[in-house]
Amino acid sequence: xxxxxxxxxxxxxxxxxxxxxxxxxxxxxxxxxxxxxxxxxxxxxxxxxxxxxxxxxxxxxxxxxxxxxxxxxxxxxxxxxxxxxxxxxxxxxxxxxxxxxxxxxxxxxxxxxxxxxxxxxxxxxxxxxxxxxxxxxxxxxxxxxxxxxxxxxxxxxxxxxxxxxxxxxxxxxxxxxxxxxxxxxxxxxxxxxxxxxxxxxxxxxxxxxxxxxxxxxxxxxxxxxxxxxxxxxxxxxxxxxxxxxxxxxxxxxxxxxxxxxxxxxxxxxxxxxxxxxxxxxxxxxxxxxxxxxxxxxxxxxxxxxxxxxxxxxxxxxxxxxxxxxxxxxxxxxxxxxxxxxxxxxxxxxxxxxxxxxxxxxxxxxxxxxxxxxxxxxxxxxxxxxxxxxxxxxxxxxxxxxxxxxxxxxxxxx
Length: 413
Known about the structure:
Shape: globular
Low-confidence stretches: 17-23, 401-413
Helix content: 40-55%
Order of helices and strands: EEHEHEHHEEHEHEEHHEHHHHH
Radius of gyration: 21 Å
Largest sheet: 10 strands, mixed
Number of helices: 13
Distance between the termini: 57 Å
Structural class: alpha/beta
Number of domains: 1
CATH topology: Spore Coat Polysaccharide Biosynthesis Protein SpsA, Chain A
CATH class: Alpha Beta
């Protein structure tokens, strides 16, 4: 099984001193005009054995820069002539959306976009389905592969049964740093007494690294994730999960009768840039955990789903997605506002984040379940789709300039 490798790459406006008013926020997108981390990621793939098609999904913080970001990614991809790359930008997404409309799936287009973590990954899965891929492997653009057998190791066990007789259809590796460490270093400060996200993560990883090598997990890593067709064609990512869509996928898989497994011998080197604002990251995490808590509660009313509880997700993310999130979040924001950096931002978060996060969860939680019920039918219709496949494999060429309105300047005589 030669997998399709899918790499979401995230881009934002050029650096400026003004306030960033981008409608979509990613953790650390690359500013236009800068090289970013994608070249190093692609360079590391040049020595990987069994590498086939690599799909680059160009996600942006603002649609107005989508074409410029796509141009830059195309230029980067062209430097790696030994890699069979496909760049997915506005033109390809337009074709995909039009085909969805023709197949009478216009109602779920909002869940397949290049403007959010879950939507981007769903776009990648749809492209893989069009290409007829039995397996996909996700990487992120800020990661480096150091093992030539990375893909073979990632597919090891996929489609087979574990010791308890469960079929492994989704498997995650883990992120390590330059020293091959997987734990998040440092002790939690006093202000995180009731949060302790790093500590909970480290405890979960310590358990995951114990034998057996491949075991069911409560966490996953979207930049080191292998999915079999029987999983990704039946379970989608949640387009309305603010962040942490990889761990959210574990919950989605469980709700629909499956499991995600973690392989303690499969990893990738993670080199993320610094996050510009820890307060903004905390704010997004509160939205994420409040949303997940409501999702777990809402699912109890859905008779066609397997019940997933916060207790079954302990220690991480379980401790942060039970009802205690309603007091942990504002209290932690208050404690962080008393010392350290971004004190005013944390004070604002303490006042506003919980009602805003609850409102977001109420507005969007049920949208995922409606989207997910349509997903298997959509993937079945789109599998090996002749019209799209000829476009995505290059049999039919697209004049990007004509589609996007970028025309060459005509010089007057």
